[in-house]
Design brief:
With about 450 residues, this protein is an alpha+beta fold. Helix content is about 50%, strand content about 20%. The structure holds adenosine-5'-triphosphate and magnesium ion.
Length: about 450
Amino acid sequence: MKNTLKLRFALRGATLFFVSVVILGSFLYVTMSLFLQDSLKDSLRVTAQHLVSVLDVDNGILTPPDSLDEGSSSRAHPEGFTERLLDPTGRVLLQNGPLTAELPDPHVFRGPFFSQSTSGSWIAYTEGVTDAGRLLAILQVAQSTRSVSAVLDQLFWTILLSLVIFVPLSAITGYFMATGLLSPIDAMTRTAKRFSTENLAARLELPPSNDELGRLAGTFNSMLERIEQSFKNYREFVSNASHEFKTPLAILHTILNVTRARPRTLTEYAQALDDMSQAVLRLETLVNHLLTLAKIEGEPELNGTSVNLGELCLRIGETFRPLTQAQGLELVLSVEPGLEVLGDETLLSSMVVNLLHNAVKFTEKGKISLRVYRRESWAYVEVQDTGIGISSEDQSRIFERFFQGETSREGSGLGLAIVESLVKLHRGTIRVDSILGQGSIFTAGLPLRVA
Ligand SMILES: Nc1ncnc2c1ncn2[C@@H]1O[C@H](COP(=O)(O)OP(=O)(O)OP(=O)(O)O)[C@@H](O)[C@H]1O
Ligand SMILES: [Mg+2]
């Protein structure tokens, strides 16, 4: 159902109001009822005591007055009030008021007491008229509880009426308040609907308050920001990758067309195959690089094993010896034994290969050295060359995907991006120190495996 949250708000508000009014109303009703009864009893007692005090008792003899009202002429009795004077045997000496038949039996008199009719329609107070401990007469005052009931009835209907009027009203108010409060969420829904690959710029207008919804909207916007950025990165990546594919494919195409244009000598065919093989190799490297990147990115958590970093680097270093010799470069390998790290051996190999490849590619003469050493709880792989070096401007960009320096030779500019991703995957660090024209040092740090 639509708008359920608002409806729930409204229903909860109304229920809360209903329960509060019922509890408060009941409390008020009971308190009021007790208070009114107590007041009535107090008033009866005071009246009775006053009447007793004005009776004419002399030497143990009570002279009944002509009328009970005489002694209390100043009092205006409320409606439903009865007063009477009985002798100790229960004979009525004087009576004033309409509740006679319902008054309690005076024979049971033991001392002052309150009594109430079973229906609760009246309350009576009975008081003795004594002299030196002897009972001379009994005075009774009684009052109908009609006025108390009237007040309580009024209160009951007021509470009921407030429930009937205010419960729906609180539901409606709750609904509109929820609509106001939840409007930023509706805005988020609309923005999320507008946000698409065609419209990456859709953002929420931030509410002015810094409350929960304001913070949620802020977080939502920064999430959209990151999505937009990753979309841009993705598009850039696809466009760069396609561009990188285009060059070797164009070369292949040209060689094929030129070679097929007319009959060729065997030497010419051999040359064409060699050139095509170069282009295919370039494509192969590119695909391998892209696959490695995809693999790293698809693997947020590394499921590593223990790798002996020194042994691995020695093995890889040796495979570079023919290449360095062919280029007249000296290759120095020096590793500390027993440095174990937790990682993926294939991925770590790829990291070292990429660094060594660059060193060989960008060094014309001199030396390339591969060192593995330990500092505290870290193992470091250091690849140093005496090559062309990297300008400080380029140093900040060489780890970007597809970035290649001015003096760059063949390649796609993915090698160092892969190295950086691999190092991050292994919770390590990578740094470059380089002087243009003198050479570079790449240092990858990896946390040693805790035994
Ligand atoms: N040892 C180095 N000496 C000098 N410049 C380097 C060295 N290593 C990297 N660079 C510079 O950094 C750039 C990026 O290196 P990266 O390895 O990412 O790409 P690439 O070697 O050009 O191509 P790929 O590795 O994809 O075949 C290189 O083009 C080069 O300009
Ligand atoms: Mg490279």
